[in-house]
Amino acid sequence: MDDASRKKYYEEGASSYYDNEGELINPYPQDTDAHLEFERGWSQTLRRQSASSFRKGKQSSPVSFQDKYADMWGSHSEVGEQASNSYAEIKG
Prior knowledge:
By secondary structure, the chain is mostly helical. The chain has two domains: 3-55, no CATH class; 61-92. Helix content is 70%, strand content 0%. The protein has helices spanning 3-19, 33-55, 65-68, 70-73, 76-91. The protein is rod-shaped, with a radius of gyration of 24 Å.
């Protein structure tokens, strides 16, 4: 594969990242140079996008399991209060 073809498939992959909102949809058959170059363009764009988002402060910090499900079970302090009240009621 010549350099012009590599560049074409690479740029298609990079554009695909934005066009498909980050979903990898590679139209080329696996085990072909076109497939590999397309995927390389897509993944490099993903890395650059993630890195630039992180540098600009757009990357949110990871959410803890407790915070993620706090609405489902209540906050940690509420759960602890319920447990201690239940225990106190049993013990009298």
